[in-house]
Amino acid sequence: MPDSAVQPVNPDVNTEARHWSGLFASWRSVRQAVQFSVDLVFPPRCAGCGRVDAEWCAACQRALNDTPFPAKVSPLPPLAGVASTAQHSGLIREAVQALKYDGARGMGAVLGARLARHLAAQSWDCEMIVPVPLHTIRLQERGYNQSQELSNTVAAITGLRCIPEALARSRMTESQVMMSAAERLSNVRNAFSAQSALVRNQNVLLIDDVYTTGATLRACGDALLAAGATAVYGLTVTVARI
């Protein structure tokens, strides 16, 4: 006769499970207590106005909502179109800087929602989103890619696929803050590579935080098109020049 009796549970297994469950619960409590203590000593400040206790306050959100979209952004070959949600100044510049340099990761959702609104006004037929990538060293230093934070929000709102692995920064580049337009072009030339299997025959929406001279968008567009993308569009939060 087959043995159909229920096998007894090893009591040591249940004890160990309860032990690890208790450790995880304790760790969560410790982490919450540490975060609470940090917030008491260093309370969050609004990225726009510096008001304490909010990473982004309601007043700054209202001001952002009232910030008009630029009428037109200069075209940038080889991209099929480029759009930005504001000029790089004032409140929105502070928000971008906080996301990029001050660890205000939550600003990705705030600014990403604005990107999604502006995208809806474009007559682009995009099939996928690709964030401008960081080099792995810079990604480790910052802890996140600000362009991917923006892209994740746009993807969640629009339903478009976000595929960050479609484009990689194949070599480390210097910071471009103090570079001329010609120096920027040289700095990022051949700095990106795209995965043909992911972008071939696709209309790609490339997302970044700031459009200054367009050197980075152009280099990314070249790589995506060389890998077989049908068309590439660029969308950024701010633009340094119209």
- Head-to-tail CA distance between termini: 84 Å
Order of helices and strands: HHEHHEHHEEHEHEHE
- The coarse overall form would be globular
Helix content: 40-55%
Could you report the average pLDDT, rounded to the nearest whole number?
Answer: 84
- Going across the biggest sheet, name each strand in turn: 1-7-6-2-3
**What's the alpha carbon Rg, rounded to whole Å?**
23 Å
User: How many helices does DSSP assign?
Assistant: 9
Question: What can be said about the biggest beta sheet?
Answer: 5 strands, parallel
Strand content: 15-25%
Unreliable stretches: 1-7, 30-38
Derived from helix and strand composition plus strand pairing, the structural class reads: alpha/beta
At the first level of CATH, what is the class? Answer: Alpha Beta
Please name the CATH topology. Rossmann fold
Number of domains: 1
List keywords for this structure.
15% strand; single chain; 7 strands; alpha/beta; disordered N terminus; 242 residues; Rossmann fold; five-stranded parallel sheet; two-stranded antiparallel sheet
Task: Explain this structure.
The model is unreliable at 1-7 and 30-38 (pLDDT under 50). The strands form 2 sheets. A 5-stranded parallel beta sheet has the order 1-7-6-2-3. By secondary structure, the chain is an alpha/beta fold. It is built from 9 helices and 7 strands; from the N terminus they run H-H-E-H-H-E-H-H-E-E-H-E-H-E-H-E. Strand 6 (203-211), helix 9 (215-226) and strand 7 (231-239) form a beta-alpha-beta unit. The chain has helices at residues 11-41, 58-65, 90-101, 107-120, 136-142, 146-158, 181-188, 196-199, 215-226, and strands at 81-87, 128-131, 161-162, 167-169, 192-194, 203-211, 231-239. It has one domain: Rossmann fold (3-Layer(aba) Sandwich).
